[in-house]
Amino acid sequence: MTIAPDKSTEIVVPEGHVKLVIDGLEVVAPKGELLIRTAERLGIVIPRFCDHPLLDPAGACRQCLVEVEMGGRPMPKPQASCTMTVADGMVVKTQLTSPVADKAQQGVMELLLINHPLDCPICDKGGECPLQNQALAHGRTDSRFHEHKRTFPKPIPISTQVLLDRERCVLCQRCTRFSAQIAGDPFIELLERGSQQQVGVAEEKPFQSYFSGNTIQICPVGALTSAAYRFRARPFDLVSTPSVCEHCSSGCAERTDWRRGKVQRKLAGDDPEVNEEWICDKGRFAFRYATSDDRFTRPMVRDAASGELRESSWTEALQIAAAGLAEARDAFGVGVLTGGRLTVEDAYAYSKFARIALRTNDIDFRARPHSQEELEFLTSHVVGTSPENGVTFKGIEAAPAALLVAFEPEEEAPIVFLRLRKAARNKKTKVFHLGQFTSPAVEKTFGTLLACVPGGEPAALNALPEHASDVVDELSKPGAVILVGERAAEIPGAFTAVAKLAERTGAKVAWIPRRAGERGALAVGATPNLLPGGRLVSDAAARTEVERTWGVEEGSIPAKPGRDTNGILMALANGELDGLVVGGVDPFDLPDPELAEQALSAAAFVVSLELRPSAVTAHANVVLPIAPAVEKSGSYLNWEGRRREFGTTLEGTGALPDCRVLDTLGVEMDADLFTQTPAAAAADLARLGDNVADASAPNVAAPLLSPPKDGQAVLATWRRLIDNGSMQDGEPHLAGTARPVVAKVSAATAEHLGVELGGEITVSTVRGSVTLPVEADDLPDGVVWVPTNSGDVKVRNLAAGHGSVVKVTGGKA
Amino acid sequence: MANPLTPVLTKRWTEPRSWTIETYERTDGYTALRKALKAHPDQLIQQCKDSGLRGRGGAGFPTGMKWGFIPQGDGKPHYLVINADEGEPGTCKDIPLMMADPHSLIEGIIITSYAIRANFAAIYVRGEVLHCIRRLNAAVREAYAKGYLGRNILDSGFDLDVVVHAGAGAYICGEETALLDSLEGRRGQPRLKPPFPATAGLYAAPTVVNNVETIASVPFIVNGGADWFREMGRERSPGPKIFSLSGHVTRPGQYEAPMGTTLRELLDMAGGMKDGIPLKFWTPGGSSTPLFTAEHLDVPLDFEGAAEAGSMLGTTALQIFNETVSVPWAVMKWTEFYKHESCGKCTPCREGTYWLVQILQRMVRGEGTAGDIDTLLDVCDNILGRSFCALGDGAVSPITSGIKYFKDEFLALCDQNSKALAGANA
Questions:
Q1: In this complex, which of B344, B350, B359 lies closest to A147 when CB atoms are compared?
Q2: A83: distance to nearest CA of chain B, Å?
Q3: A61 vs B382: CB contact, 8 Å cut-off?
Q4: Exposure letters B271-302 (e unless 16+ CB within 10 A, then b)
Q5: 3-class DSSP assignment, residue A424
Q6: Within 13 Å, how many C-alpha atoms sit on residue A181's CB side?
Q7: Does the pLDDT value for residue A8 go beyond 60?
Q8: Second label for A178, Cα 20 to 30 Å away, from A578, A727, B24, B149?
Q9: Which pLDDT score is estimated for B88?
Q10: What are A614-626's pLDDT values in tens digits?
């Protein structure tokens, strides 16, 4: 038998590709690919330090040298495979086949180690250190260095959360390149030269970046370490669990590392569709809230005699809760406030509990300023969108233009900000910010500010064709996107104008809320007007479909849309509602905390499902402890509508997810939720499926704005990423990197109001006042900006918000 | 050739107040410019190619070819940057040239800018030479006043602005991409190539970076023609060259002679070795070029001649050492320089120079071992060709060539009793 040469084994080189040989293996690679990646695809790992797939090539460490032959002629020097791109006919020999490359790599490794301290036994990186690993794989067995090592004082804090050990640094520049290229926060830079070269910060200018934790993660040695994690664990003693960030609506993939039942740290997971390999510092560091001393571990009931909460058994607590809720339901009814931080499964349990146990549509997840217009917009434009038909992270990256409306990406959804910056930096995406001043995000997305007075956003949007037709032209290009933030709910007419602009330009719209649970809560009908899957409460057929799937009596779901958050609170305060089930809501986040206080006081019966004490606790008749994100499984729906599922990180803590607690409570009330576990809840929800109703876009006319009177200004306000949020509790290192609490006004406004710039300003309403330092910025005249919930500034306590008219005076009140 | 001296670039240096525009104009100054502005820019590039002019900064890249790399009609601004960051140890030609005859550089800049279609040129001068910077600034002001710079130069419709930029004294900024970074206001560290400056140089626009002596040669080529230029020097390295002689010679200084002149000829001009003490070793082109010894007195000093003899022409900075000097000591001092000047970007140069210095210092203290010589050579091997830019390559030249020719001296240092070698305690 003869064997004919098999033609089919000949490698076909597709268009835009080249063929080369690495270590004797033929390989086809796309043009422009770096040699180090092509080799990696073949399973040939070339050691490296400075190389990182998401950073621009540097070629600084020289660890990845290989021998290269072009057109049959060997190049005279070994080449850095992290900077050289593939070419047709190239012949590459790595350390595996080339003694020259192997010696070059060993030589560089020896040089990297001569000044590296031998403190691996006390180094946080020890055990997961690329230098350690690669020195074993590609280094010499002993050192020929008998001289003096370079020393530096160590470690030095370059911010409250990042510590720098310059002795360990191999000067690969990953951290400085990340900060300059990805985050756009070049607070760290190389200083000095030669062997004295070091990473450093400018005097009095610490590493105040929302993304600084990523530099710790990508540092290939132990030069940058986390103040919070320092000396906490050895990597090989940690158990790593894939997880999803519970903070903002981006839904970043994370890795949670824990030991002995305690989370030690969080790292960015690798998800090219969502967060690539980055997370913000809040997502990385803000997890200690779940282990704070004041966490509820036992159910509590209010003692009839003393009027105080006392610990009880689950049985007792659930029975009292069930009886109290049933009584209130049968009197004037019970409302449900769920907050924006629930998983899809937990939110679904609340939604179902409200409908079948409480027989009401009085449920709303919006624990923040909200409006009917917003609800209509969410119903017509948001619910049911998914990565298949809506805006995605990748869509942003590919967009020719993006218009941001009432959305401060770096503060509200930092990973969206990183994508916008990447798009603008690499693909020249035009980014327009409809806001009040040139925030850092405007600069770092190379953006254009379209400035308007708070409340003037709809007018500005409607006038775009007239005054900024270039913006309309850009938004009319295929793939353009409009991103609208939750602040739009504070601006009458904003959602209407966004919908109109989208219709006119064809741009896709995405709603990017701040909280991880809002998109999921919307999808499962934790709203007064929607049932799960985008079905309208007012649609009889939809109600019947839900009732049949749930196996409840037809006609049992009320046909009338319920009250929204404000409506529920007013009804409680006025005695039109009797009871309240409240889960994960901080009354001080609500548009009017005083109204919330009145409502809670007036409510006959309050059941609080909570992790830790809040202002609700004092009014709760029953407190049911629930599990934090790491102690349960579930999923979030991120702003793209992408399901971000995660498993339980810490098993067996005894903490129960909301859906389980509600399921049991339901049983006590003769209502079967079938949400005993998140998996059961998800399966029950899946049985319903989506059936998104056609709904018309909101149509709210923007009110005419009257200019503020003397001594007054229009308030612009939004929340900062790192602020007083209760999920950042217990993390002082993170808190130290919060941006300074200042007010901003234009220089002309300052002069007009008699405010001394650099001095203090007092902002007041009938409810009270707050005094804070003030600085000038490029705001429209007659506008004052303050952070919503930072330091002593708690705008909601003034019953104020974005667009409120406030009294402004210089100095203290 | 009866008189080996060919004063071309240096012809005005002995004139009274040679640096003024009056002297310059009196001695044919700005005549080449008038000629050049009548020509098509491409003709000037071709003439430069024909002349065979090669870069005088050390690498010897053909200048006309470099100009030809600038993409034309690309709609981007083009820039000319003059590398006047003369820092190579022993080199002293650009600064004297700018002191004595700054207008020859400026005229060369105008002609070159016209040829490559640049409307902005920068002269990056080493920051330490304050007097020279003042002279250059004065000359630029004079040229503006006379209409040689600014808008519509000599009614040609050509505009050019020239800026004199003072560096901050970093050797690395003589590396052209580090120079560009420094000129842009960043830390001076070499850039990744490609892209090369010809496509993405200063502010990412097409840029020519040329040495002072190269550009100062241009007016002479325009006036004298390519053939005249080729009459001097050798076939592949034509033209005159300023040799800087320093060290143990009777009359150190700048000697302009055709390319290919030997050290023996240059020593004759310079009055021979100082005090008659015999020559021991010398550098043909600064400390980054491997050492030569007395054996190499007749090596023709042009790009090919120096390379064939195992070194490089470099900047034709001839540092000449007599027999009183210890080679290991000299090598140590040079290595200290490289350690001090390594920019720190890449591992081999940053860490390697740090290590080499310590070994050499220990050897010179008399605490070395024969094994140290092997370590030195192996570390040099791990730096040469592994560094990001040529600084690392230059740093190992004195060591490897020093050991090549004078290994006995290194070995002698390893003997505990040899501390008293000449120069070792200097």
A1: B359
A2: 8
A3: no
A4: eebeeeeebbbbbbbbbbbbbbbeebeebbbb
A5: helix
A6: 17
A7: no
A8: A727
A9: 95
A10: 999 999 999 999 9
